[in-house]
Prior knowledge:
Distance between the termini: 38 Å
Strand order of the largest sheet: 4-3-7
Structural class: mainly alpha
Low-confidence stretches: 214-235
Number of helices: 10
Mean pLDDT: 84
Number of strands: 7
Order of helices and strands: HEEHHHHHHEEEEEHHH
Amino acid sequence: xxxxxxxxxxxxxxxxxxxxxxxxxxxxxxxxxxxxxxxxxxxxxxxxxxxxxxxxxxxxxxxxxxxxxxxxxxxxxxxxxxxxxxxxxxxxxxxxxxxxxxxxxxxxxxxxxxxxxxxxxxxxxxxxxxxxxxxxxxxxxxxxxxxxxxxxxxxxxxxxxxxxxxxxxxxxxxxxxxxxxxxxxxxxxxxxxxxxxxxxxxxxxxxxxxxxxxxxxxxxxxxxxxxxxxxxxxxxxxxxxxxxxxxxxxxxxxxxxxxxxxxxxxxxxxxxxxxxxxxxxxxxxxxxxxxxxxxxxxxxxxxxxxxxxxxxxxxxxxxxxx
Length: 322
């Protein structure tokens, strides 16, 4: 087991909370109406804090743009690492956190309150970081991402996208290993995109979760010019789950929920409840990975999570057919 049972369950619980809050928020955000000509349910995506939602005419090919976006983002981040532009990464990260939080909060309140709250939390997260605030904001960051990107996608696009990302994840972790370098850079720069649980182990191997931040100086090769020592990590170990491993399953579940509404004709509450099956199967897949994984080794999570997504959808389809 990669981490103790206590830490493993804690990480899985955070993952589940993020997925469920994301699904509930997406369900609240979308607007369902009945087309007078066809009699079928249609979904509209209202404007968000970021503006009007863009929906391509053919969503089945949108996986191309998102996959390219992931690739370009990875290249840009490597450029920042190579030339020690840590401050640019900080500004980039700050903007992404602020925008996604504002979009998520904007589903529940007006944009002024959402923007102010998102700004304050983003400042706290980036400039006065601690693990508790980090994980609290991460829960809503991926909710905001789902609301922003869902209008671009349908179930076909998500199927293909998950397969592409899974293959990419395996290559990036096991072959090129650049995903490991990116994770180390984010951890050292204290701007990690994903869930982060610091803990300490005694000689008997008993783990204790600690959300008390301690001062850590980034490694020389990762420290940006002019950067200051900041705090997020503890002197002990940490359990982490990358942002993509949270965002893509949530996007898949959201497209499943929309599919059940538009193609099957289920009401929003029923579609939300049934989609929870994919959340459960993905969490089971993550649990299997964390139990089978060995300490001090890196594993690509997306292949396991993708399998969990597909199994969950299969169960929903089988139940509907029967």
